[in-house]
Amino acid sequence: MSSPQAAFDLTWLLTRRNNKYLQKRGSIRMSNNKYLQKRGSIRMSNDPFNNTGKSTKRHAGFLQTKAAVVRVKNEKDIYVAVKDGSNVNKPAKQWSKNTTGVKASDASKAVAAVRPDLADVAFRRAAKLNKTAKHVAARRAARKTALAGKT
What is the pTM of this model? Predict the structure, then answer.
């Protein structure tokens, strides 16, 4: 009888070099349509449950039974999308939204409840998204006042 960890390891071995979310950067195209990976080239992931963008076994949210990611809604509200391992056979119902608030520490605590090893990454991502949201709001307000002054 195989363990879930063995199944996860096998799935990662099969999908690590070629999957839907993998982005290979810095490769050279060969004449026979195969890619030769250069030194210094990187492999990134646009997986919806990946907080870092790295294509690694630890951060591959599409393979993990439990995953959590920090996202932004309406360019100002931060929420945590959680995949808790239930409803595995129903992809649309396997994740839920937890609205956290404005603080990055709240988002980090919500992620730590599901995956404690990703709490630090979630904190950094939430802080970065907060900073970006404040910057966008300030720029929009400045643009709005500048346009109001011209009319």
Answer: 0.74
